[in-house]
Amino acid sequence: MKLENYSAGDHCDEMITSDGKVKSHYQEFFKRLEKIPQKKMKHLQHSANQTQRSMGMTFNVYHDNEGLEKILHLDIIPRIVPNSEWREVESGLKQRTKALNMFLQDIYNERSILKDGIVPSELILKSKDYLEPCIGLTPPKGVWCHITGTDLIKNRDGKYYILEDNLRCPSGVSYMLESREIIKRIYPELFHEQGVMPVSNYPTKLLNMLQFLSDKKKPVVGVLTPGIYNSAYFEHSYLALQMGVELVSGVDLLVEGKKVYMQTTHGLRQIDVLYRRIDDTFLDPMTFNPDSMLGIPGIFEAYKAGNIAFANAPGTGVGDDKAVYAYVPEIIKYYLNEEPILNNVPTYLCREEEQREHVLENIHDLVVKETNAAGGYGMLIGPKSTEEEHDKFRELIKNNPKNYIAQPTLSLSTVPTLCEQGIEGRHVDLRPYILYGNEIEVIPGALTRVALKKGSLVVNSSQGGGSKDTWVLY
Amino acid sequence: MLSRVANSIYWLGRYLERAENYARFIDVNFNLMQDLPVGLKEQWRPLVAATGDLHIYESKSQDYTSEEVLYFLGFDENNPNSMFSAVRNARENARIIRENLSKETWEKTNELYHFMQAGQKKKVWKKDDPREFFSLIKNQILLIYGLADSSVARVEGWYFSRLGQYLERADKTSRILDVKYHILLPNQDQVGSPLDFLHWMALLKSVTAFNTYRRVYGNIDPSSVVEFLTLNKYFPRSIYFCIREAEKCLHKISGSDAEGYKNSAEKAIGSLKSKLEYADVEEIIDYGLHEYLDDLQIKINGISDKIDSNFFTIRDNFAQHSTPQ
Does the predicted interface ipTM exceed a cut of 0.85? Predict the structure, then answer.
């Protein structure tokens, strides 16, 4: 396909420099791409879509009544990350994960970071995600976040910035794995020539990490899902299948004598570790929400007694609040006595008067986010919004300042993407996955989400985003 | 195996078998209609009657045109037993227990569903000759069986799926046999006429039994056909064969030897098997074929209920805890 007209514009492009030269880590691919006729590319894209459909790689969209299952569009042009760049991301994520885990252990136990005034006590202790039942607890093996899926972006300056620490139940890893399988079939020879680091051993690593959480020799592990109507159900069953463990839902489990059992065709069988993909507060109605008809009554008592391990541990949500995010650089310095390797996006906390005034005055230049929303909802992109929308958000902020933060608009980097008119640049983010068991490991790959609409910065799958395979080179 | 998972595997087996049988029914009836003498009215009502869903059909329509019946049996989402519903339910159950299926089995089941949806969109029932579609559906299901046969470990899940499949098949064979009861000959003199034979032949063909029957019995004669499809010890779609195989599955699941029973499901199926094992076709005819088949269907349903209570029913984990104040 011809790429003469492809340009970086005023963004950082992953493939070409601002003066139009192909970056060295994309050269092999670029040569290959030039040789494939446009028609053939479209055909390859079509067959990728078909494969996704027969695999049933679907997600369910909230706020959408038409057809429960949708396919997350997979663009067949990969996002390639050179090794040197990856090393930095990797060490930065390890550092951050370590610090955030120490932070969680601390705020549920000694609270020294609060006593030392580094993070305001009120921000943590009054957060709805700070779970009282977890106070004084240390999870099995002392780890809180076993699976993290951090969102990063690359700004105009060519540097990576952390956008969000997803410490609860980050999803999307199945897309990383299945997309790789599909893309491998499309460019079989390139993988060898380019030297792409494999991701396919993720399920094994995940299983090892989960087994590590129990002291039993052969612990029984399960994936706990809310059920087939959950948006990430495909992923839950996919991971259970790949690990060869049971996929359980709340009704399959019951607690007797502070032990957790699965109900099988041959009676009760004890289960030791749960990779739970349901929210903290739906785990146990007796502990968290007496009105809930979901969850497994008594399971939290079993957890306290050390008879069941959860990944991630309940209570981690307080660590990825968008207001806490602003303090992460301080958190890293406090626990590790190191400078943060990866950048935080400068963040204005509307709870602080001075910062709030700045936000209200400069709202047209800023991105405003709710501290507790996800999926790109409850968000204002200042430069792309009308005066009316600015005013609406000014009101929202004034009425409930604690609920909002603001950040400068960043320019997300672009990657060539197959579009109607040919190949054009589209904005992307990057979500690598980090496992924390015996040690911290960053998987050399990621889910790259891409905003398919021209110029759009919203990469969320629920709002017109697609995905790309991410190649980390040796 | 989780009770909930076993339940879904069992129903996956049943629904796939149901869909396949419907594809056969429709295909054969279509064939039969083409052989009818000119001027004789097409008979689609018996097919609907045999599925046991006359009341649903007649709540919507009093006419039995091929188009309407094809739609009802094949594509009607509001008919809980239509081929479409069976395929959709099979796929839904497969989705629930996907982690227990091989990748290929799931993908082929998923494709089957998409294929069925496409057929519905294209309004296949309006085509002059929709048989190609039904035969494709049938082949896709056979492909799923083939994949499973050569790739699924013979452990509990396998036996639950077979159990569902065989019970469903026993029920469907009894129903296809019952079609003959509902088909009206123009008048009583025609019993034993060429037209009557056409019907019996079509019936055998619909369970792919025609050639085997010929080899065993030679001539077409109603009581031999009944004997063959009900009591034959070797033909994999005869009711006896299905019940015997289903019993084996239950024994594998509970780990019991072939003698006696370990649970109420085994007891019920064992006694039905013995009854068929020692039955004569004359007894069946004397009792009344339709009545006999009706009894069989009720017994099969009873067995299914017992399987449910023995293996699939789970305790409500909320029941043992009172809500804390």
Answer: no
